[in-house]
Here is the input.
Amino acid sequence: MHKLSPDEITAALLTLPGWTLVNEKLHREYKFADFIHAFGFMATAAIAIEKENHHPEWANVYSSVTIDLTTHDAGGISEKDVQLAKTLEALAGKLL
Here is the structure.
């Protein structure tokens, strides 16, 4: 697993609406209708996350879920982060 270059990260962000680069991590904040939807997203996402064996840094406050993605073994953002972001987008899209 290799760390993506700045150009590769920029290209990846073009395919990830709502995602930005914050503190050298892929970053996204989702705002759901309420706590149940936010928690439902996290519970559903946990299954996909475990299958990918790549775990996010995330937090939940009421209807918001904040996510940061980085690959510690690669020393920064890798293709694993981009793939997980795409997976999370697909899951969130069903609840937003």
Remarks:
- The radius of gyration is 13 Å.
